[in-house]
UniProtKB/TrEMBL annotation:
Pfam family, one: ACT
Native source species: Bacillus smithii 7_3_47FAA
Keyword Repeat: yes
Enzyme Commission identifier(s): 2.7.2.4
GO terms (BP aspect): diaminopimelate biosynthetic process; homoserine biosynthetic process; lysine biosynthetic process via diaminopimelate; threonine biosynthetic process
Enzyme class: transferase
Binding positions (ATP): K7, F8, G9, G10, T173, D174, R184
The protein, known as: Aspartokinase
Ranges in a coiled coil: none
Length: 411
């Protein structure tokens, strides 16, 4: 008998029937003799609707107030699910993030979990209770409610699994596992039976919304086996773990894509070395994530730097840079919206230097021009026009043979 953490996403708890379906999956696990902690998201599209409500007042609502608002979504679900479990004759109790002892840094909208005070949850589990916790939220040292970033309930679940030393964390969602690419958009996307933490971390960071990147990070750091599976269908999901059996000699394991990318260019850097460190320092201090960075030197001795960000951060980025213009020492800022990032990921790339070339060739054959590139040992990312995103992902998925059982062993 061990402890299992189960997490159910928005679609899986979208209405009362589905909440009863979730209650049944929880009860099944409990009847197998396990202790169960359940983490849930807000129902259906609740979080999006709450965002729209706030934006009807102000396009850039105060971040503290957004956390106050968005954290209510999950609070509805914990209460309804717990009520369903009690109605079915099981002892259950619900907790918000702060009640569950989930402490975060003080960064509204995208906080990291720093610590989980598990005493209360552990003693309730010992009493045999099913514990239901609100995903996506925590509390700072000084009692402020924070949220963990969109999709952050996965991270609540894995962090609880790590803190409570769970045997496994099961992420129940609206697809049957992790696929070679998003099955909603890519024809022939195929479910993977397993994938390594590192590959999953890259895919998640590069836009495969099926798992929150920090959830994968926690799972890797604490060696928590993570399973992604369907809350509706009864089939084996995908296991994410350290060592995976090489079911095929895969070079590329997945294609990820992400829209709403903007490229910012800061021109006329006077003192390039200091300006560069100050620019990225000041953006980091404001919680703005910078992705691909390209530096270039113009003839007149001044330099320029381009970098990509999420378009959601455009307003803050410009604001922060302009406010610090003197200190940062630059002339002007330009930007290009309407971009997207399409990436290929696979640990087989380490020993296959031709993969990036193959990727560019496939994109060129399809008349898709590449604006920025970044690589690591196990991924190649390209920034392209957003209008080409789905086509690029599809031709790369086809081109690297991901839909078939056998992938090219060498390139
Ligand atoms: P939940 O509300 O359960 O957290 P999400 O919408 O966050 O669900 O994540 C599930 C969705 O992730 C799927 O519906 C699918 O469209 C998308 N997705 C993106 N990339 C992948 C992938 N590689 N494999 C599976 N699903 C993916
Ligand atoms: N409800 C939050 C969101 O929609 C968190 C989550 O579902 O994981 O992003
Ligand atoms: Mg999710």
């Amino acid at each position: 008998m061990g402890l299992i953490v189960q997490k159910f996403g928005g679609t899986s708890v979208g209405d009362i029937d589905r909440i009863f379906n979730v209650a049944n999956r929880v009860i099944e696990e409990k009847k197998r003799g396990n202790d169960v902690v359940v983490v849930v998201s807000a129902m259906g599209k609740t979080t999006d609707q709450l965002v729209q409500l706030a934006k009807a007042i102000d396009d850039h609502p105060p971040k503290r107030e957004m956390d106050m608002l968005l954290s209510t979504g999950e609070q509805v679900t914990i209460s309804l699910l717990t009520t369903a479990l009690i109605k079915k004759g099981f002892e259950a109790i619900s907790f918000t993030g702060w009640q569950a002892g989930i402490q975060t840094e003080k960064l509204h909208g995208n906080a990291r979990i720093l610590n989980i005070e598990t005493k209360k949850l552990s003693s309730l589990l010992e009493e045999g209770k099913i514990v239901v916790v609100a995903g996506f939220q925590g509390v700072t040292e000084d009692g402020e409610i924070t949220t963990l970033g969109r999709g952050g309930s996965d991270t609540t679940a894995v962090a609880l699994a790590a803190a409570l030393k769970a045997e496994r964390c099961d992420i129940y969602t609206d697809v049957t596992g992790v696929f070679t690419s998003d099955p909603r958009y890519i024809k022939g996307a195929r479910k993977l039976s397993s994938i390594s933490y590192d590959e999953m971390l890259e895919l998640a960071n590069l836009g495969a919304g099926v798992l929150h990147p920090r959830a994968v990070e926690f799972a890797k750091n604490y060696s928590i086996p993570l399973v992604v599976r369907s809350s509706m269908e009864r089939e084996n999901g995908t296991i994410i773990e350290e060592e995976i059996s090489m079911e095929q000699n895969l070079v590329v394991r997945g294609v990820a894509f992400e829209d709403d990318i903007t490229r910012i260019t800061v021109e006329g850097l006077k003192d390039e070395i200091n300006s560069l460190s100050s620019i990225f320092g000041v953006l980091a201090d404001h919680g703005i994530n910078v992705d691909i960075i390209i530096q270039s030197r113009i003839h007149d001795q001044t330099g320029s730097v381009s970098f990509s960000i999420k378009t959601d951060d455009l307003h803050d980025t410009i604001h922060v840079l302009e406010r610090n213009k003197e200190k940062l020492g630059f002339d002007s800022i330009t930007y290009e919206e309407g971009l997207a990032k399409v990436s290929i990921v696979g640990s087989g790339m380490i020993s296959n230097p031709g993969v990036a070339a193959e990727m560019f060739a496939i994109l060129a054959e399809n008349h898709i021009s590449v604006k920025m590139v970044s690589t690591s040992e196990i991924k190649v990312s390209t920034v392209i026009d957003q209008k080409d995103m789905e086509k690029a992902a599809q031709v790369l998925h086809d081109g690297f043979g991901l839909a078939q059982q056998k992938t090219k062993a060498t390139i």
